[in-house]
């Protein structure tokens, strides 16, 4: 990426600059320094309700066949009390605690102790030690990229167990889903709290910490930018990708196994969910080095939003379609199945190509071809905290000329495809597309706010050249 082209900037591309009047505003990029009342209210809302939302969804499937309305009707009519529902909820078990501890320990082991070997024999795959983006303090972190390897080893073991060893049932995740929820919550809260304490007492890089003075905001959005233990255990990379995203495909496989156990067959809708989400997960690991340059890794600080979100929100709510299909096995007619498959694949193509175009453009510093032509771009500059000036480029060609976040549009098309596999009987599986639309629209606004703080008037020139965010001509 161009901003990262300046990892080893030549003197003409990088110089100390204090005379520039925009310096104070331009070094504010990264997450907010000050908290407005709306952000605070949203954060308090999420801290209080996000765990309840997850519980409500999972409980609805467990006790109400995935109906989101029936529990409310029962409660409002007095048919049931809150404690009736709570009393029927499975509790934390030693078995779930053991499974979860083993799972997380195994993923830590694969992350920390097994250096990547996939890049040595997979052509085109970028793994091993890679550099991240320049942080606001001007630091360039190194990462061991071995997620694809962790995913492959984990899945080979999973299939070896299912078809050969039979140490545990392939439905193990589904069968322990609520007890595992309590374990995931314990880890999510523990890691977020630890990250907060660490940022006060032993931060990895004190210059990349942000203290707003508001406890709740700091807890939620994080203080440390790249908390680490030792040289390689990076909290953001680990929790972002593993255990949550490695688990995603295993969770779906467990749902498919449950369908097989209950109904003697796996429906085409379940296969579609497994395939489409499997492509998305594999794409993540194939491009893990590229993810070092995405907002999660290069702009977000590590707090509850990422810590708890990666442990609980992602594995539990991103997999709702598979869970739903265990309770409601939908067999799609061929036309619908093909239509959904096409929507998912086209969405994935748009998502991947848009991301690829930016990556190629930034890696080559604009010396590449986009749709057969030399890309057009806007030159821009920004400063790090120490006053060092960097130069970057914003592309206005390819999908990036259509809209400023067309990668999100592709992601949303894919997300809609997952939901459509479940038919239209219940709203629960559609939570994902509603959530992704809110997440990515909010992300557009958040990212653009940050980019404006970073690039100032250059960003305005860019938005004038590419006026739409997600859908050309509409938004
Ligand atoms: P982007 O990959 O779009 O990165 C945005 C950054 O790219 C900007 O901050 C800016 O960074 C740079 N940039 C913006 N416009 C241009 C341009 N025209 N030319 C060159 N560089 C530009 O966003 P994300 O990191 O949010 O998303 C990455 C992918 O991950 C997306 O496809 C998204 O859909 C997906 N995603 C999925 C989520 C999920 O939960 N499933 C959650 C979040 C993201 P700089 O400072 O370097 O200029």
TrEMBL record:
Organism: Ciconia maguari
Chief location category: endoplasmic reticulum
Keywords: Cholesterol biosynthesis, Cholesterol metabolism, Endoplasmic reticulum, Lipid biosynthesis, Lipid metabolism, Membrane, NADP, Oxidoreductase, Steroid biosynthesis, Steroid metabolism, Sterol biosynthesis, Sterol metabolism, Transmembrane, Transmembrane helix
GO CC list: endoplasmic reticulum membrane
InterPro entries xrefs: ERG24_DHCR-like (IPR001171), Sterol_reductase_CS (IPR018083)
Renumbered residue ranges of the record's region Disordered: 1-23
Highest taxon listed in the record's lineage: Eukaryota
Family the entry assigns: Belongs to the ERG4/ERG24 family.
Pathway given in the UniProt record: Steroid biosynthesis; cholesterol biosynthesis
Subcellular location(s) of the protein: Endoplasmic reticulum membrane
Protein's name in the database: 7-dehydrocholesterol reductase
Known catalytic reactions: cholesterol + NADP(+) = 7-dehydrocholesterol + NADPH + H(+); 7-dehydrodesmosterol + NADPH + H(+) = desmosterol + NADP(+)
MF terms in GO: 7-dehydrocholesterol reductase activity
Compositionally biased tracts (Basic and acidic residues): 1-14
TM region positions: 37-58, 92-114, 148-165, 177-197, 302-320, 332-351, 415-440
């Amino acid at each position: 990426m161009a901003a990262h082209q300046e990892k080893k900037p030549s003197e003409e591309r990088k110089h100390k600059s204090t005379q520039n009047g925009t310096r104070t505003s331009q070094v504010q990029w990264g997450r907010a320094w000050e908290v407005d009342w709306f952000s605070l209210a949203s954060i308090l809302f999420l801290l209080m309700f996000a765990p309840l939302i997850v519980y409500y969804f999972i409980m609805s499937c467990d006790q109400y066949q995935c109906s989101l309305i029936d529990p409310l009707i029962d409660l409002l009519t007095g048919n049931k009390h809150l404690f009736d529902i709570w009393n029927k909820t499975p509790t934390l078990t030693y078995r779930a605690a053991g499974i979860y501890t083993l799972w997380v320990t195994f993923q830590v082991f694969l992350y920390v102790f097994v250096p990547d070997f996939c890049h040595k024999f997979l052509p085109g795959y970028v793994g091993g030690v890679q550099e991240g983006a320049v942080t606001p303090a001007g630091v360039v972190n190194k990462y061991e990229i071995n997620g694809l390897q962790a995913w492959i080893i984990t899945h080979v073991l999973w299939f070896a167990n299912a078809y050969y060893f039979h140490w545990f049932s392939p439905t193990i995740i589904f069968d322990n889903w609520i007890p595992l929820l309590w374990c995931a919550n314990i880890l999510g809260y523990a890691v977020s709290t630890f990250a907060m304490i660490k940022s006060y007492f032993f931060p990895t890089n004190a210059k990349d910490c942000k203290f707003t003075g508001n406890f709740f905001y700091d807890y939620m959005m994080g203080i440390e930018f790249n908390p680490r233990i030792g040289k390689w255990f990076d909290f953001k990379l680990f929790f972002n990708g593993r255990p949550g995203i490695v688990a995603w495909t295993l969770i779906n496989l467990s749902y498919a196994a449950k369908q097989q156990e209950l109904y003697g067959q796996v429906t085409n809708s379940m296969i579609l969910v497994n395939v489409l989400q499997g492509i998305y997960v594999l794409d993540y690991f194939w491009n893990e080095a590229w993810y070092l340059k995405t907002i999660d890794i290069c702009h977000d600080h590590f707090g509850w939003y990422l810590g708890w979100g990666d442990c609980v929100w992602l594995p539990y709510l991103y997999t709702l379609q598979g869970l739903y299909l265990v309770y409601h096995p939908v067999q799609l007619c061929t036309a619908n199945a093909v239509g959904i498959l096409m929507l998912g694949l086209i969405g994935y193509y748009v998502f991947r190509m848009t991301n690829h175009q930016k990556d190629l453009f930034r890696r080559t510093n604009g010396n590449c071809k986009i749709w057969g032509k030399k890309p057009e771009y806007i030159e821009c500059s920004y400063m790090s905290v120490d006053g060092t000036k960097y130069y970057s480029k914003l592309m206005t060609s390819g999908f990036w000329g259509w809209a400023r976040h067309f990668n999100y549009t592709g992601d949303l098309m894919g997300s809609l495809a997952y939901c459509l596999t479940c038919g239209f009987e219940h709203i629960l599986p559609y939570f994902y597309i509603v959530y992704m639309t809110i997440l990515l629209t909010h992300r557009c606004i958040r990212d653009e706010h940050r980019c404006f703080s970073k690039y100032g008037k250059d960003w305005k020139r860019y938005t004038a050249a590419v006026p739409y965010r997600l859908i050309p001509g509409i938004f």
